[in-house]
């Protein structure tokens, strides 16, 4: 098992997939990080040296990922709601925000735009 940022990964997992599993790291940023440390795109975690793993962990600790990135997104949505913008009202009502049709297909948006209150999911 290889540990990156306190998360255990199997040694046969691709480095790219392991990096992308962190919230806030997409394919392009993962590719940039791998290129910075000269890791082959198809390399598995078991083949990477412990020194490189340590440097990867140090690199990831300086970035805004996981809870920090989630907090930024929540703060942005809260700011939109407080200002009373169109997008903020759509978030508050649990409706699609980016111009999708609402006549028939809004079930996914209703699921995604729910807020948690007191341990229960509720639409606002």
Task: For the structure shown, list the relevant keywords.
single chain; 124 residues; mainly alpha; two-stranded antiparallel sheet; two-stranded antiparallel ribbon; 4 strands; 48% helix; 10% strand; elongated
Task: Describe what you observe in this structure.
This protein is mainly alpha-helical and 124 residues long. It is 48% helix and 10% strand. The protein has a two-stranded antiparallel sheet. Strands 3-4 form a two-stranded antiparallel sheet. Helix 4 crosses helix 5. The mean pLDDT is 89.
The gist of it:
This protein has helices at residues 15-20, 27-36, 50-61, 67-83, 86-93, 107-112, and strands at 2-4, 7-9, 115-117, 120-122.
Q: What's the SSE blueprint?
A:
Blueprint: E1 2-4, E2 7-9, H1 15-20, H2 27-36, H3 50-61, H4 67-83, H5 86-93, H6 107-112, E3 115-117, E4 120-122
Antiparallel strand pairs: 1-2, 3-4
Helix pairs in contact: 4-5
